[in-house]
Amino acid sequence: MLTPPDGLWLSANPGLKQFDWPLLKRLNHQVEVHSWDYSQSPDEPCDLVGAIALLHDYMQGLSRPIHLLGHSLSGILALMYARQYPEYVQSLTLLSVGAEPQVSWHSHYYVLRNLLHCDRTIVLRQMVRLLFGACPPIQATHLVKILGHVLDKELAPHSLTSHEGLVAGGVRVPLLVCHGEQDVILDPNSQIQWNPFLKPGDHRWQCPEGRHFFHHEYPKLTSQKILDFWQQPICQSSAGLLEQTL
């Protein structure tokens, strides 16, 4: 079996990886965190089932459970995997993931597309403002291209005509849920919907002034919160208990 890293960062949308690197760089100063990428091919169904199967192939090759992390859709993938295969997950860290997982920036975009009868680029520019705040025109244009590429070419379990329903709730493994204080996709009312699903030892953290991509805006603060959680006794004890089942 492979010697596992301390943590595994999931990237269901590789087109957004540039927003993950500052946090991963910070984490790797103190622990070993690898990145697992899922690339959607034109012939594959646009759902999470295939991605979960491929992820499980990788996880089965590790010698012990590891910490699993993900942002937005990547976090939803991590959540679905941890529910299905908890024995392979030491802890789960979700960034910008709602208690009702089907709510994401992807679903928000398609809601706007149905409500606003205007050019797609205008809707994408509105999404850029919602996700990143006010940006210089050149940067906004660049972000519009990135979001458009993700929606057209990568995994997105929603479309103009359908929205994939995902079950609300938590997981058996230790859980850290992180959000941005100024996130308009998952606003404070949406964030507190996690409270009924948190077990003793689970944590919910709000990044001050952070937006939907708060881990990119505040990588140092976010990495410290994650590392502090990993050092909790409940995370350490869960590793030993789960390892015995593998």
Structural features, described:
The chain is α/β, with parallel strands linked by helices and 246 residues long. It contains 10 helices and 6 strands. The protein has helices spanning 21-27, 48-59, 73-84, 105-115, 120-132, 137-153, 188-191, 214-217, 219-230, 233-243, and strands spanning 7-11, 33-37, 66-71, 89-95, 175-180, 203-207. The protein has a 6-stranded parallel beta sheet with strand order 2-1-3-4-5-6, sandwiched between helices. The radius of gyration is 17 Å and the shape is globular. The model is unreliable at 159-163 (pLDDT under 50).
Helix content: 40-55%
The major sheet is characterized as: 6 strands, parallel
Annotation, overall tally of beta strands: 6
Uncertain segments: 159-163
**Sequence of secondary-structure elements:** EHEHEHEHHHEHEHHH
Shape: globular
How are the strands of the largest sheet arranged?
2-1-3-4-5-6
| CA-CA gap between termini | 12 Å
Output the number of helix runs.
10
Structural class, by secondary structure, is alpha/beta
Rg (CA only)? 17 Å
Strand content: 5-15%
What keyword list fits this structure?
246 residues; alpha/beta; single chain; 10 helices; 6 strands
Q: What's the short story on this structure?
A:
The protein has about 250 residues and is α/β, with parallel strands linked by helices. It has helices spanning about 20-25, 50-60, 75-85, 105-115, 120-130, 135-155, 190, 215, 220-230, 235-245; strands at about 5-10, 35, 65-70, 90-95, 175-180, 205. A six-stranded parallel beta sheet has the order 2-1-3-4-5-6, sandwiched between helices.
